[in-house]
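hey so i finaly got around to running the thing on DNA-3-methyladenine glycosylase II from Amycolatopsis orientalis. pasting the sequence first so u can double check i didnt mess up the copy paste, my clipboard has been acting weird all day
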Amino acid sequence: MHEDFERCVRAVQAKDDRFDGWFFTAVLTTRIYCRASCPVVPPKPENMTFYPSAAAAQEAGFRACKRCRPDASPGSPRWNERADLVARAMRLIADGVVDSDGVSGLAARLGYSVRQVERHVRAELGAGPLSLARAQRAQTARLLIETTSLPMIDVALAAGFGSVRTFNDTVREVFALSPTELRARVRTTPSTAPGTLNLRLPYRKPLFPDNLFGHLVATGVPGVEEWRDGAYRRTLRLPHGAGVVALKPEDGYIGCRLTLSDLRDLSTAISRCRRLLDLDADPVAVDDLLAADPLLGPLVKAAPGRRVPRTVDGDEFAVRAVLGQQVSTAAARTHAARLVLAHGEPVDDADGGLTHVFPDATALAGIDPESLAMPRSRKRTLLGLVAELTEGGLDLGTGSDWQRARERLQALPGFGPWTVESIAMRSLGDPDAFLPTDLGVKVAAKAYGLGPAALVAHAERWRPWRAYAVQHLWATGDHPINRLPAA
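ok and heres what it spat out for the 3d tokens, dont ask me to read them lol
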């Protein structure tokens, strides 16, 4: 996108917010960089140059615009639409892997050498993994400076900086303001509750929240998830401790209230919440393709901007998918709630009724099969999945290889097409995952005169957005997953 100069210029001149996060505009005369929709008068085209990432613009010596705050724009949809090396690397960087494990740890997770990762990421993003992680640390620092009253030394450590001096230098370089000056610009009163932050998560319009929040609430596990005061709330398992998030659909953004036991988890928590709600999607591209289909066209027109509800933890959803095999939604929730009570990590939730973090694979490894109230075949399926997750053979995390993960799942006992594709859609985040054997999808297709074979053939025209087509097909049924819960 950033290499198409004329198209970028037109987007900037039109202040088109659909392109925020796709590219960044650097102004040669002022040495600042902006998002496409910056409200200031656009510079002359000869004074514009474009970068694929904020980190690349920073590396080139440009500072962030104080008006449009380009670091707070939605992420590029490219990284959640693809499964290649660079896309996987970007998802892992957003999840905090470079900060916790360094570039060598990132390369190990990807299965490539450090040199290969550096070369591929720089070729596409204009900056290496360290610079991308640095840009993310700067954004986290700004959020902490502006939304909390933490001392600056605590902000520096929580944002992932190795020293206060590096923190000060980075903030001045990126924002052209010292940390103290940045805090002085804030008109709102920072949160005083320890570990609690109130944020806004941006997205590209349109967004249809009904199925997104309806699905999460209708399938929610008691004690782990709830709907309270018009917000979806859930517990989070994060690298440095547990957290609780409340996500509320607002006009133009998602309200996000985070309570963290360790503020070093802020950027990771934000990344996982954005992934959960599919906030970095490009709904215009998705809707344009699906609306051209005579079957889906009226559904897309009635509800533009549908997102795919995903997950904050790939392993958790895989376990829940197995628990949901061939049973009702209510039964699946009951099975999951029993696991949570027996093996989950307790949490304190002063604002609601959340009680536990969903147990990880390690906590489930020693489970007694006789304690599971389910058929013997499903017990075997669950235990096989847990063993594969704990032994490291199956990666369902943000940087996973989608095809390899599918192959490993298919090799496990009890994993048929529905379970594999459900996990591909929700855990892996594959936008082209498709569930032709799902009951709701089959019922909707039958109403349109499509049998199983005809549905699979017809769905070829929905690629690469078949997961979004599934959301529209599900919406034809009368089920709580399609409705925004009452406040």
